[in-house]
Structures are given as C-alpha cells and as structure tokens.
Amino acid sequence: MEKYSSAKRRTYEIEKQFLSPYAQFSKKSRGRERQEEACDLRTDFQRDRDRIIYSKAFLRLKNKTQVFFSPEGDHFRTRMTHTIDVSQIARSIARSLALNEDLAEAIALGHDLGHTPFGHAGERVLDSLSPQGFAHNEQSLRVVDVLEKDGKGLNLTYEVRDGILNHKKSGNPVTLEGKAVSLADRIAYVNHDIEDAIRAGLLKENELPKDAIRVLGNSSRERINTMITSIYATSEGKNTVALGEEEAEALENLRSFMFEKVYITDLSRKEEDRARRMIYAMFDYFSKNKDKLPPFYLSLLERFPLEQVLCDYLSSMTDKFAVAVFDNIFIPHSWGLNSRDLEEN
Q1: What is the Cα–Cα distance from 178 to 163, expressed in whole angstroms?
Q2: In DSSP terms, which residues pair with 65 in a beta bridge?
Q3: How far is CA 218 from the centre of its chain?
Q4: Which of 62, 128, 191, 234 qualifies as a cystine partner to 80, CB 3.0-4.6 A?
Q5: Burial class (CB within 10 angstroms; exposed 0-12, middle 13-18, buried 19+) of 168
C-alpha cells in the first residue's frame, strides 16, 4: 500500500472534495509500465509533469519551428511557446470543469515532444521516407517511452501517455483531461498562428472570415475566452469536453482559412521544398553511412530498424541543428575546419 505525507494526503483529499466525478483522480491512475517507488509529496501526474519539463526533448522545443522557418523577430511562436500556450488553455479548461489540472498540464507539456524540425513540413517528409510512416503524436509517445534518459524512457503514467498519443483531432483520449488538451491544441495554434501571420505581413485582420470573427471575437484574447466559455457552458456537469456547435463551426472555419491562406501557399511550399530536400538528403546519407550516426542512435540499432532510428535522430533535431548537420555533410568548408570547430561555434 502506498505511503504518503500529509501534504500528498491533502492533495488527494482536495481532489476528492472538489473535482468532478468525471475527472481522473490522481490516486486512481492506472499506473506506470514499470513499477517504481512513489514520491512522498507529489502525485504521479505531478511527477510526470516535472519529468517532461526536465527532459532534453522539451528543452529542444525552443528552437523548433511552429509555422515560420527561422523568423526574423523575437515574438514569433516556436514549438516551445506553442506548448506553453496549450498548457495554459488546457489548465483553464480543466479548472473551469473541475478536472485534474496536473494531468492536463502534463499531457499538454508532452504533446509535441516528437515534433520534427521545420514544423509539419518535416513531419510530412519523414512520413514519406519511412516505410512505417511517421506521425508526430506517435513519435512524442516514443520519446517519453524509449528515447529519453539514454534509452530508458520517462516511464510516465498510462493517462499521460494516452493523452500524448491521442491529442490530434482524430484521436480519442480516454480521459476528459486528454480531450481538454486536444481542444486546447487547436484553439492555441489557430489563434496564435493568426497573430504570427499578421505580424509577418501574410494576413490582415480584415481578411479573416467575418462569420467566424462575429462568433468568436476580433482578437486572439477574445476568441480564446469565447471558446473556453463555450466549452464550460457545453460540458459543465457532463462526461464530455466539447465546444458548442456554433463555436466549433467557427473554429473549423478559421482553421480551414489558415490552411488556404497561410499553411499551404506558394511561399510555404517553397520553404517546405527546401526543408524536404535537406531532410531527404540527410536521411539518404545516414542510410548509407549509419556508422556516422551519434553513439546513442547507433546503440538503438541493436533494438530497432535503421529507418526507425533515422526518424528518431532527424525528428529530434532543432531547425538550427538540422541546418548545421546538413552543412557539415554537404557544404565544402575551409581547409582544417572540423566537426569540433562546429561544436565550439
């Protein structure tokens, strides 16, 4: 039987007293794949959150593309700031519906750990190259299960792992907290990508679809508040986390608009083609020169196929690191310049 301090007991009592009967209680987690000694102070979901925050994959998110490749300016979103946005929105949803905020936060912080460099462009390239395909949600689960801690994984709880795997729109998380993260992800990227597109000069506010703006609001703040309020009104006291019909339709209209005007345009295709050629060239190079892989990824070849390990390595790269590796392999350098020089610079 688990022994715990008065602080942890108090957390359990607070959950029992204040959480919705549809929430995932920390004490009732399905647990971890590998048994381990429980923490005296923190619940399992709180421990999962901390493990994710201190993981190497989480730290790399700050230098991975959200939408715009290597944008000029300090205020464009990265994969890290997107993750923080999702976490904040998911926690707001969870709090309003009396769900488990710690679980929602852990899922949100881990949901994009497996994302490629160069955003979804990199994901599409690896999906086309790998015989088993590639999807960032599946890779995020692989990161926490296998790749972190030198191949030992983070040994997260079932509920956090499920939420990470099923955070995409097509997924069906087993917990309401996971459903909250899935909605928060869409709310975050649509609204904040609009801000970045306007900042980049690709859009003007008056170009946004008027019907959607009428329902949701004129600013990102208004739209996010409207949708969280709608989720509360639709889901409070029920075994669901969902937007109202009008707000859901408006969000989908905004999402479709962004695909047409920002995500899939001549400019984005040009940048994606550059990323595709870069990733394709590195995939081909390491396929033929697997001995050039870093030692950790070489060790993975004892357990996994080469194509899987190549996806592990390439998807782990930040945008800048991918460019540096490509440059080191394919671009001629001055005589005497070596890989150590690159590492020191």
Answers
A1: 5
A2: 78
A3: 27
A4: 62
A5: middle
